[in-house]
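Usage

Read records sequentially. Each one opens with the input sequence:
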Amino acid sequence: MNNTHFTNQERDRYSRHLLLPEVGFEGQQRLKEAKILVIGAGGLGSPAALYLAAAGIGTLGIADGDVVELSNLQRQILHSTQNIGKSKVSSAVEHIHALNPLVRVIPHTMALTRDNALAIIADYDVVVDGTDNFATRYLVNDASGLLGKPLVYGSVFRFTGQVSVFDAAKGGCYRCLYPEPPPPHLVPNCAEGGVLGVLPGIIGTIQATEALKIVLGIGETLHRRLLLFDALSMNISTINFPHNPHCALCGSEPGITELQDYEAFCNTAQSTEKSAFSQEETDLSPHEIAAMQESILFVDVREAQEREVRMIPGTVHIPLAALPEALTELSKQEKPIVFHCHSGKRSRAAVDLCRKNGIAAKHLAGGILAWEKFFFDAQFMSDLRAGLK
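and closes with the structure output:
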């Protein structure tokens, strides 16, 4: 490519990129022409935005409706003490321009909603999701998918993080990995559960790396792969997850053709279809199941890729879609049957199906999320008691 398209200042600023055969002048021009939207100017959005700006992304959109608070500064390196009280977007624009004045920054001083998400995302080539709540994650996933935009996902909690790339146009989105949200009361946010300050920096930087690879068309992205990072063990692993052909957004017969009411979707822990059986008849707590686990048939009705992410030891796997074919064998079981899923929605449906066919069954209320919280709380109390001795 003719390098006369670059000023002397640009050649100096991006010289280390220009030395890379995989980037060079042609790749740097792609970065210069690219438009990337970073949603959330917090822990994840801070490192992502700074590194994308430093790399020479020509147009960088920043969307966030919050203001800078003192508690943000432990991890949100896009902001400084003197910016407390200012909008995060204004603070972000200030710091990005100080880092690289060649970048055009478009401020979106607002939260994304079902009313504005499509219009905002439509103007960009790649979306980086730095949000911290499930309602916005599903919103961003669906809006990006409907518009055919690749989405770089990241999340953090305490000492662990996740990164993936979703591209509904190629098959594989957030709903393929997480078909349903967890019950709100079972998943605390970082304000409630805490997060190691450096962790969002690591995850956000990986998100920036994936976004740059998408723009440059180099390497292998995390499309249909989930990267898992554990800061305490310094363990990094990736698992593959398949495209779900029945996905509501990117499946063969998608049911989502417009944006939904995501607050209602994520605040409904149980199925909108009322069960024919009372919770007293069907629900078991993690404590109850732990006491009887050796004497029950504990059945996981989630999809295979969900078991790869997390699994309760000793469970057998029968996906909910395959349950009707398994009813005959289940009817011969002598052990009590207990189902579980991610949050309790699908396992309750499994209980209903069995009971309507004359098979006694119960389920783990709250799903694997409740199970993990129960054991986390038990370990926490054990550690606390040990510390008091």
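Summary fields computed downstream for this record:
- The longest strand covers residues 151-157.
- The mean pLDDT is 89.
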